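Narrative summary of target 7.
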Amino acid sequence: MRFLDEDDDDPMLSVVNLIDLFLVIIGMLMVVIAQNPLNPFSEERVVVVENPGEDNMRITVKDGQELTRYESSGEMGEGQGARAGVTYRLDDGRMIYVPE
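Modeled conformation, tokenized:
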């Protein structure tokens, strides 16, 4: 039986298997990059909020090719202004603004 006598010690077989593995990894990385909301190839406006409500909260806004990052200082702001109304959060998470 000839097929039992063949040697599978060809070093090129290992290289071919590694190439297949790397192609799968590259394909997975491309899918991850395409689904990233800050993808440089998407033309839409995206807002990403990191650590909401914390002292180190960050807001990143991508508007077309322009990327703007706002960082919280953790301090209470002060300024000139007047109260404009009241906002209520409902049990289902919706927010209702009631002007005065």
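The helical segments are 2-5, 11-35.
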